[in-house]
């Protein structure tokens, strides 16, 4: 069963559970926020975030969008004197986009089908949890050792579905890889992909650390 959902194209991928701050300055999205604020307080205030495949976030042209997106559930709204809004949103449910309507509202409306969060092969998913947790900790440490980036790593959950999304959000990947993780149908499959991805990245980071150490050893510490 499909439902209509306001769509917000972005040059990033939103994942379930991921916090996404947004600055709303375009009038069409200001109108969307005003409509959300007018809803009863007991209703979920949400819209759909869809990553852009080609095109721009701003402007009248309809960008090419990826098929799978994630709802952004509004947690906090701050309205500014100039009419802008600052939002704090959290990723909610995954959905697949069908037809897109760009005429019925100032913003895009999509016919979307919400996707279930399934574990897939339960035994394989549970078996993957400990090695993926270990690899993620090694990956975070490797990034810190190389000075590439500091990851504020949360406690890694034991639940396969939750862990698969934490890894997808925390790993420093490009848009295509993150989008593929969002679109992966179940936790077992997602953890399998993440295990391979983390092994690759940990290996690359070890090479960088080894090369860096070798270069340091070549430097003559003598001032003469």
Description:
InterPro entries: Lon_prtase_N (IPR003111), Lon_prtase_N_sf (IPR046336), PUA-like_sf (IPR015947). The chain is of the alpha+beta class. The longest helix is centred in the C-terminal third of the chain and has 32 residues. Helices cover 39% and strands 27% of the residues. Strand 6 and strand 7 form a beta hairpin. The termini are far apart. It has two domains: 112 residues, Archaeosine Trna-guanine Transglycosylase, Chain: A, domain 4, CATH 2.30.130; 97 residues. Strands 1-3-5-6-7 form a five-stranded mixed beta barrel.
Fill in the keyword field for this structure:
globular, alpha+beta, 224 residues, 5 helices, five-stranded mixed beta barrel, Archaeosine Trna-guanine Transglycosylase, Chain: A, domain 4
Architecture blueprint of SSEs:
Blueprint: E1 3-10, E2 19-24, H1 27-37, E3 46-54, E4 64-65, E5 68-79, E6 85-101, E7 108-114, H2 122-146, H3 160-170, H4 175-183, H5 187-218
Parallel strand pairs: 1-3
Antiparallel strand pairs: 1-7, 2-6, 3-4, 3-5, 5-6, 6-7
TL;DR of this structure?
It is built from five helices and seven strands. It has helices at 27-37, 122-146, 160-170, 175-183, 187-218, and strands spanning 3-10, 19-24, 46-54, 64-65, 68-79, 85-101, 108-114. It holds the Pfam family LON_substr_bdg.
Helix- and strand-based class?
alpha+beta
Q: Detail the poorly predicted runs.
A: 212-221
Q: Can you tell me the CATH superfamily of the largest domain?
A: LON domain-like
Could you please say which CATH topology of the largest domain applies here? Archaeosine Trna-guanine Transglycosylase, Chain: A, domain 4
What is the helix content?
A: 25-40%
Total number of beta strands: 7
The general outline is: globular
SSE order in H/E notation? EEHEEEEEHHHH
InterPro entries: Lon_prtase_N, Lon_prtase_N_sf, PUA-like_sf
Protein name: Peptidase S16, lon domain protein
Organism: Frankia canadensis
Pfam family, one: LON_substr_bdg
């Amino acid at each position: 069963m499909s439902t209509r959902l306001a769509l917000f194209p972005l040059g990033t991928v939103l994942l379930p559970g991921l916090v996404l701050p947004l600055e709303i300055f375009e009038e069409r999205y200001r109108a969307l926020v005003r409509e959300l604020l007018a809803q009863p307080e007991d209703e979920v205030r949400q819209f759909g975030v869809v990553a852009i495949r080609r095109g721009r976030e701003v402007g009248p042209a309809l960008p090419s969008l990826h098929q799978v997106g994630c709802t952004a559930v509004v947690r906090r709204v701050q309205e500014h004197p100039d009419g802008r809004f600052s939002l704090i949103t959290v990723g909610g449910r995954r959905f697949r986009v069908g037809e897109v309507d760009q005429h019925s509202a100032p913003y895009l409306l999509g016919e979307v089908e919400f996707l279930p969060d399934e574990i897939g092969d339960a035994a394989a998913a549970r078996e993957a949890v400990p090695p993926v947790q270990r690899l993620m900790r090694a990956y975070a440490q490797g990034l810190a050792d190389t000075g590439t980036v500091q990851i504020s790593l949360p406690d890694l959950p034991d639940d396969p579905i939750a862990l698969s999304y934490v890894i997808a959000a925390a790993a420093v990947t490009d848009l295509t890889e993150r989008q593929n993780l969002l679109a992966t149908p179940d936790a077992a499959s997602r953890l399998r992909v993440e295990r391979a991805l983390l092994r690759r990245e940990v290996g690359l980071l070890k090479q960088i650390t080894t090369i860096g150490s070798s270069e340091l050893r070549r430097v003559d510490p003598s001032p003469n």
